[in-house]
Amino acid sequence: MLSITFHDKVKKTLYILAGIAGISLIILIHEAGHFLFAQYFNVATPVFSIGFGPTLFEIPCEKTILKIALFPLGGYVEMDPDMLAEQSYIRKMLILFGGILFNFIFAYGVLVYYTIRNKLSPSLNISSSQTMKQAFVTIFTQQNGNSTFVGPIGIISTIGQSFAINSQLYWFALAIISFNIGFLNMLPLPFFDGGKALLLTIEEVIGRNIPAHVVWVISMTFLALFILFITQITLNDVKRLWKK
Fold this sequence. Notes:
The chain has about 240 residues and is α+β, with helices and mostly antiparallel strands. It has helices spanning about 1-40, 80-85, 90-120, 130-145, 150-165, 165-185, 195-205, 210-244, and strands at about 45-60, 65-80. Helices cover about 70% and strands about 10% of the residues.
């Protein structure tokens, strides 16, 4: 009985790690989009961070330091503000939406790969996209109930459970979540790419920069509200998982 319990704990730990690795990969892909567009337009990028909070370790890579932080639920690419300010409106927008573009490319690539593989090798018994979609919806519902909004813990749990079934469903789940993160970042909120793009567009239209203190107040207000929202749905995720 003890060995079975230990084996179950090992499996649960593995699924959690798979979930964290999956969400970290999606974040890495998103930030890589910003990074590569910035590099293409010769904007210096001193830091490329996966995660927030205290740095676990860092790797110097030419003129950029790659950081792995404690909380793997986000990331950022630090850019030289002066060099970024010198770029044209179009280039700034490309840098901003590079992350979203890469999320969509990754998701589309995964779905196309399995579609082509299924057609070329039907003997492998690879599930159709419709079957995988139904399986993903079932797992998502089992993990999160009928909740409209799911926090980071719920997402990690869903990815981990997908990994527990098979690798194909795992990558399908990552593709779906990558799509959703891409769309989420298009929201016109100051701390999302869509919000930053909106501010840039307003500045381009009015022909001058919005005062820094105004941007700061708007950003902090929306960020505080967003943190409260994320905290609430994360607590809901914990309660649901605890009951199980």
